[in-house]
Each structure stands twice: as structure tokens, then as C-alpha cells.
């Protein structure tokens, strides 16, 4: 079991000791399994998570289609949830853990209080909003200006670089959800790349050649 000292070390990116003390006082740690839902579209946000390890995928869903907006990683929080909590609005997106994830959660009504008390919290919020703005702009540019075939290959290359391996553990459906298209489209594109000896396909895994 983690001690408060262990958690204190994990939130060392906050420079203000008083803010860290409040995070420990009001927050609690949760361990999430892959697939656990953190927030749903249409839900009022009553608490906010700060990811200590692992990752949360934030996405929107319309009928049978999904598209990823961004991934919340260590030392980050969900900006969509942050905005919903700040203005007491319903969430406009879903959040789900993509791997075993540890989060520090705290009541959402503290967001505005901390904004008035701690410059370090304001800096953190602005950094998060700017990062998510850049993420969303990049995603928008990819959708508008890049053909889906190119987006598939570039996404696989990116995941390969992040993993440090030519193998990407991803199903066709997961890839379709990340890129906002259908499994049928993804399967067709990957089959074409396989015929060109650019990838090799396995169940739940794609090797980049």
C-alpha cells in the first residue's frame, strides 16, 4: 500500500507544497484496469483525475463510430473534464483507461477554489489547456488534410516509435476507433499495405516491416 510520502513524490511536478498537501488531504488514489470507464458523455463531473501512471483515452462517440481526442498520461489531467467541472457542465466525451492506470482523484468543486489560492494550479491548468489545444488542432489537421491511408501508416509508425518496437499491439477495431473510421476501412488499408510488404498482420498485432 502506498504511503502519503510515495504519492507526494508522484506529484512532485507541483511546486507549491501547500497545494500538494491539499491534493493529499482531499484526494484518493484509484487503480484502474484496462477498459475501466473514468467518465461518460453526458455525465456531470464530480471528481477530477490526475494520472500518476498509465493512460486514459478521451474520445467522442456517435452511433457506431468513435474518434480519439487525446490521451491523458502521467502528470496530466483530462481537460474536457476540467472544463466541465469548472463550468458545472456535463461531460462531452468518454474517458477510459487503455492500460493499468493509477490516478489521484479529488472533488471537482475544488478546481475554482485552487484557482484563487494557488498560482501553481493556474499554471498547471493553462499548461493542460494549451497541450490539449495543440493535440486537437493536430488531430483536426490530420482529418482534414491527410488521406486515411496516410493517417493509418503514420499512426502505426508513431506507436512503433513510442513502444521502441516494430510490433504494435492493436486490433483493427481499436485502430479504427483511434482514427475515427470503421473497421472495414482499416482492414482494407492494412491488407493493401500487407500486399506491398509494408506490414504483417496478426490477431491483435501489427508488425511494421
TrEMBL record:
UniProt key word Amino-acid biosynthesis:
no
Q: Which UniProt keywords apply?
A: DNA-binding, Transcription, Transcription regulation
Task: Name the InterPro entries on file.
Answer: cNMP-bd_dom, cNMP-bd_dom_sf, HTH_CRP, RmlC-like_jellyroll, WH-like_DNA-bd_sf, WH_DNA-bd_sf
Pfam families registered for this protein in UniProt: cNMP_binding (PF00027), HTH_Crp_2 (PF13545)
- UniProt organism field: Mucilaginibacter mali
Q: What is this protein called?
A: Crp/Fnr family transcriptional regulator
Q: Which GO terms describe its biological process?
A: regulation of DNA-templated transcription
Domain (HTH crp-type): give its ranges.
146-209
Amino acid at each position: 500500500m502506498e504511503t502519503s510520502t510515495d504519492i507526494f513524490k508522484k506529484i512532485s511536478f507541483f511546486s507549491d507544497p501547500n497545494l500538494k498537501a491539499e491534493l493529499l488531504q482531499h484526494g484518493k488514489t484509484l487503480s484502474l484496469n484496462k477498459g475501466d470507464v473514468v467518465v461518460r458523455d453526458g455525465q456531470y463531473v464530480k471528481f477530477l483525475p490526475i494520472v500518476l501512471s498509465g493512460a486514459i483515452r478521451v474520445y467522442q462517440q456517435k452511433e457506431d463510430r468513435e474518434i480519439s481526442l487525446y490521451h491523458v498520461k502521467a502528470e496530466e489531467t483530462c481537460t474536457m473534464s476540467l472544463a466541465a467541472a469548472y463550468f458545472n457542465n456535463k461531460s462531452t466525451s468518454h474517458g477510459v483507461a487503455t492500460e493499468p492506470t493509477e490516478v489521484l482523484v479529488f472533488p471537482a468543486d475544488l478546481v475554482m477554489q485552487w484557482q484563487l489560492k494557488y498560482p501553481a494550479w493556474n499554471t498547471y491548468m493553462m499548461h493542460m489547456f494549451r497541450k490539449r489545444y495543440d493535440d486537437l488542432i493536430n488531430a483536426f489537421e490530420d482529418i482534414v488534410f491527410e488521406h486515411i491511408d496516410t493517417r493509418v501508416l503514420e499512426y502505426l509508425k508513431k506507436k512503433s516509435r513510442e513502444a521502441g518496437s516494430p510490433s504494435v499491439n492493436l486490433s483493427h477495431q481499436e485502430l479504427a476507433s483511434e482514427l475515427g473510421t470503421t473497421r472495414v476501412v482499416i482492414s482494407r488499408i492494412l491488407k493493401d499495405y500487407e500486399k506491398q510488404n509494408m506490414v504483417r498482420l496478426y490477431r491483435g498485432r501489427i508488425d511494421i516491416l
